[in-house]
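Example record

One chain of 363 residues, shown exactly as stored in the release files.
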Amino acid sequence: MSAGPSAAAGSPAGALRHVLSHLVTPLLMCIGMGLAYLGAFHAPEPHDLRVDVVGSGPSAQVLAQTLQDKGDGALSVRTVTDRATAAEHLRTQDSYGAYIPGRAPELLVASASSDTSATAVEKVFTQVAAGQGAPLKVTDTAPTAAGDPTGQGIFFLLVAVSIGSYASVAVIGGAGAVLRLRVRAALALGASLVVSVIGAVFAGPLFGLVDHGLAGLWAMAWLYSAGILLIGVGLHTFLKRWTTLGVMVLFVMLNFTSSGGIFRPELQPGFFGALHSFWNGAGFVEGVRGHVYFGDHALGGNLLVLALWFVAGLVLTGLAGLAEARRHSAGAPAAAAPAAAPAGPARSSVEEEEEEMEEAVGV
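Predicted structure tokens for this chain:
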């Protein structure tokens, strides 16, 4: 008996081609992660980092202009009349440091806004104070919770919630591919609820990343997670085995790097700073910061960002439903008609199991 196509597909050469074709996805992930993370984080340096010099006299004006000129674009320096105004600018994240010159110079920072930005500002003004022959006193007007001394816990919470969300996409889209889309969408919403509760437990009772505002954090985590899951479930209808790569590009490579959780846009290349203004990870990180540390400042705008991504997920899921309905309608007559040609050789059970496993993990 001669070996048919099925046997050829199961040959060592066929298996090798099968493996090589599927290695494309992890290699693209490697390239994408390297470009995204190294491009965003490998050489952080300030550009147009807003700082204030407190004072209204000529000496304050001269100091501000000197810092502006010497900074060569690194700083955006302005003068304010008093300490209260400077503190308000820090609260509204309109500046990231305020220097009060004098015999006992003082620097106001808000580490909850960004510990790395506060460190960059402190480095600059420590040198300024040293040039004046005085030690610098640093006052943190918005310190982080005791459980998050570096101020980066919210970013790592974002990572955990994101991974739980896009990993659930692979399971729902792959193992649940035989289910109706509305059932998959319901599973997505249910999974996002569970992921957000896990995130709230991490942030509150388990690690103490926040010491108040936990209910608001949970709500933003659910909205963020639901947006990812709905977008992923909708994309699976169109991308199939490329869905994993697609959601990693959207919600890891571009998302984590533009969130502002490690470095704010003022310390990153312009591309990531631009994404920060409307990407969902930035909406979550800045929304939680504003809610917990800055009296809900700019919370509405960040909630709008998260809501728009959620709506995008609903729209994409709806489009996926229409596409699946058309495919089902087009396939029904073909299934009812008698076969016009002899059926090809049956696939081996190994091939069928491989395809099922690929669908189950979304690759």
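Notes: The chain has a mean pLDDT of 89.
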